[in-house]
Design a protein that fits this description.
The protein is an alpha/beta fold. The chain folds into two domains: 8-47 and 309-418, Aspartate Aminotransferase, domain 1, CATH 3.90.1150.10; 72-307, Aspartate Aminotransferase, domain 2. Helices cover 34% and strands 13% of the residues. The chain has eleven helices and 13 strands. Helix 2 runs antiparallel to helix 8 and helix 9 (310-332) runs parallel beside helix 11 (397-412). 45% of the residues are buried. The model has no long low-confidence stretch (mean pLDDT 96).
């Protein structure tokens, strides 16, 4: 994909050609001087969520009180799961909205290791989100340190080679747990190919979709994936800390036994039996009472994505990330930036990492710029990555142009030198 020039008029023209442009009006955007490129960490607030939540609070909770559970709240985890299934190529009874991503990863990883008792190998990679690795390390410790964790290396710190995956898996591997789109570099695995490699070795495959769902098309069934987890507050715009989801392929649901035997995972929660009997379907992967207000906030956000369709969102994402990389090549590479993201669209998610020795202070200068300068919100990932998240539902080409131009101004004018190197609590 090529672009004629770096003039802002081209960005305006690309925006007028955007068939998804109307979806930007679905979101609360109240500061014209702010460019938000952090939807890969926390999505914007959908306007329809505001009234939806007012009804959930005032009418459903306020007036119906505990009766509201029988009005439909009790089925929210599976009904919302059925909607997310449409975004990730799963059956409606294979996705459950419940708990946090780390908790769901814990449940499914333990279930996997119990299902392969004669194997003790766990495989992940060096690009994985640290929390995923911590969960795997904690499980190994919990299970008596009888398993070992092997991390697939990266030759360039950006991608993982297929042959490196092959070399890490053997007939002792019980579980392979990878993030589909890497949180720093946006490297994206070939899901079908890796899953096939894992199955050929007799192991189970567990994908983390946190940087995939709502950003790139996912086909869990088509790739014959065993298990997956993902969060809902990034590209799904579900609200800060909104409940995560898990996927268990239908034929595995009754075979695997997850370790957290909460009452909502039982066959009949309101029978209050003293001995646990697990549900036979996806509900066996529940634990306790769902956080309903956070759960409710997710529904209108998912509806917007379903309306937009993943195919159109992916097409726009590719075009916008290509445009961002084009501008970075022209403006930022000559002043010390390097690309921390794959150039090939087929192995790239929907964010772009730009690397610079002063990335942290540049990020602060972008975020904290005093008026009348525009403010840009990316995020910083150690040691030197500025992540620029493209959320095709509301990100414009003009915003990308303005943001990159602002980065150029900050570095050329050494504006970043006005900011401290001391790290804030959240970066």
């Amino acid at each position: 994909m090529s672009f004629a020039n770096t003039d802002i008029n081209l960005a305006h023209e690309l925006d007028t050609q955007d068939e998804l442009a109307s979806f930007r009006d679905e979101f609360v955007i109240d500061d014209p001087n702010l460019i938000y490129l952090d939807g890969n960490s926390l999505g914007r607030l959908p306007k329809r969520t505001v009234n939806f939540m007012r009804n959930a609070i005032e009418q459903e909770w306020g007036k119906r009180l505990i009766r509201v559970w029988n009005d439909g709240w009790i089925n929210a985890p599976t009904e919302l799961g059925a909607k997310i299934a449409r975004l990730v190529g799963a059956q409606t009874d294979e996705i459950l909205v419940t708990e946090a991503t780390s908790i769901n990863l814990f449940k499914l990883a333990v279930a996997s290791l119990q299902a392969r008792p004669n194997r003790n190998g766990v495989v992940s990679d060096v690009l994985n989100f640290p929390s995923d690795l911590y969960i795997l390390q904690g499980i190994i410790d919990l299970l008596g340190r009888n398993h070992h964790l092997k991390l697939i290396p990266s030759a360039d710190g950006i991608t993982i080679a297929p042959e490196a995956v092959d070399a890490a898996i053997d007939n002792n591997t019980a579980l392979v747990s990878l993030t589909h789109v890497a949180f720093k570099s946006a490297f994206m695995y070939d899901m079908a190919r890796v899953t096939e490699q894992v199955h050929e070795a007799g192991a189970l495959m567990l994908w983390d979709l946190s940087h995939s769902v709502g950003a790139v098309p996912v086909d869990l069934n088509g790739s014959n994936v065993d298990l997956a987890v993902g969060c809902t507050y990034k590209y799904l715009n579900g609200s800060p800390g909104s409940p995560a989801f898990l996927y268990v392929r239908r034929d595995l649901q009754a075979q695997l036994s997850q370790p957290m035997w909460g009452w909502f995972a039982s066959e009949n929660p309101f029978a209050f039996e003293l001995d646990f009997i697990p549900a036979s379907d996806i509900s066996r992967y529940r634990v306790g009472t769902p956080p309903m207000l956070s759960m409710k906030a997710l529904e209108p956000a998912i509806d917007i994505l379903i309306e937009a369709t993943m195919e159109r969102l992916r097409a726009k994402s590719i075009k916008q990330t290509e445009y961002l990389i084009f501008l970075a090549d022209q403006w930022l590479a000559p002043i010390g930036f390097t690309l921390g993201t794959p150039r090939q669209a087929e192995i790239r998610g929907s964010h772009v990492s730009l690397r610079h020795p002063e990335s942290y202070r540049i990020s602060r200068a972008l975020i904290e710029a005093p008026p009348p300068a525009i403010q840009v919100i990316p995020d910083f990932r150690a040691p030197d990555n500025i992540r620029l998240g493209i959320a095709p539902l509301y990100t414009t080409f003009t915003e990308i142009h303005q943001a990159l131009n602002r980065m150029r101004t900050i570095v050329e004018g050494k504006i970043y030198e006005q900011y401290s190197v001391e790290r804030l609590s959240v970066t």
